[in-house]
Amino acid sequence: MGFWLPVLSLWRREIVRFMRQRSRVVGALVQPMLFWVLLGSGFRASFRAPGTPEGGGMSYAEYFYPGIIALVLLFTAIFSTISTVQDRSEGFLQGVLVAPAPRSSIVLGQTLGGTTLALVEGLFLLLLAPLAGIPLTVQSVVLSLAVMALLSFGMTSLGLAIAWRMESVQGFHAIMNLFLMPLWLLSGAIFPAEGAPVWLGWVMRVNPMTYGVAALRRSMYWGGGGLASPLPSFSASLTVMIFFSVLIFLITVWIATRRSV
Question: How many CB atoms lie within 10 A of CB 44?
Fold first, then answer.
């Protein structure tokens, strides 16, 4: 209980705080849906998936939808980790750090709280995938949830690694716009790597979120066709995401252990 009680307490606190801040639902769900509607409609006539004939293949709205789910996961992770900066300025984090609890349990509780919130919001959008022309099966939903949980855990850990070093919310937003959003933009969520310049394609290949989005696409179309472009295999994508999630979580624990307040 010396390890798991802080984990459960901080996890529960994130859930309760989310339920009391309904505006976070609007920010995390409505804005990505607006992106999907506007960009999906705007690029519909000009988008053609690689390897498909002119005028054929999937629509841009269908291609873009897994990327929108990834954006919801990223937004929720960002919003949940901002609270770490606020907790420091309000003195709550200092009280947690002086408690007789290992830093790893504190970080795990915060990470699981953000992961849970991201997974719930991502599930809501996943169930609406047939509206984008993506047929779902029980197996594809289960696999997609597993991929979304892993992606949420990794993105929340990354957000916490940044938030633990920030002194202000403004500084966190600056890093978010400079670092976190390009991770999503260059993940294959908006455009496939096959149509990008060579140098940009290599950047997308070393981007860990590229493999999270690829795994999500493959899981959503599990057992059927519809994939727009050549993607990393499901096993390779899952391996990269597991390695990235564990590594960034350990880095976050290390940062939390070194920092006193």
Answer: 12
Residue 230 to residues 73, 104, 135, 217: CA-CA distances in angstroms?
24, 39, 20, 11
Listed by start position, the domains of the chain span 4-44+54-258
* DSSP notation for 6-56: HHHHHHHHHHHHHHH-THHHIIIIIHHHHHHHHHHHHTTTT---TTS-TT-
Amino acid at 128: L
Alpha-carbon span 68 to 48, nearest angstrom: 18
What pLDDT sits at residue 92? 73
Supply the pLDDT for residue 228: 47
Q: What is the 3-state secondary structure (H, E, C) of 197-258?
A: CHHHHHHHHHCHHHHHHHHHHHHHCCCCCCCCCCCCCHHHHHHHHHHHHHHHHHHHHHHHHH
Give residue 129's pLDDT band: very low, low, confident or very high (50, 70, 90): confident
Closest CA to 69 of 26, 18, 33, 113: 33
- Which is nearest to 143 in space by CA: 216, 35, 240? 216
Which token pair is 96?
């947690």
Residue 234 and residue 143: Cα distance in Å, rounded? 10
What is the rounded distance in angstroms from the CA atom of residue 122 to the CA atom of residue 113? 14
DSSP character at residue 130: G
Model pTM?
Answer: 0.86
Between the CA of residue 171 and those of 24, 110, 115, 156, 175, what are the distances in Å?
Answer: 20, 20, 23, 17, 6
Which tens digit of pLDDT belongs to each residue from 84-96?
Answer: 877 777 777 777 7
The residue ranking higher by pLDDT, 217 or 165, is 217
Q: Rounded distance, CA 13 to CA 109, Å? A: 9
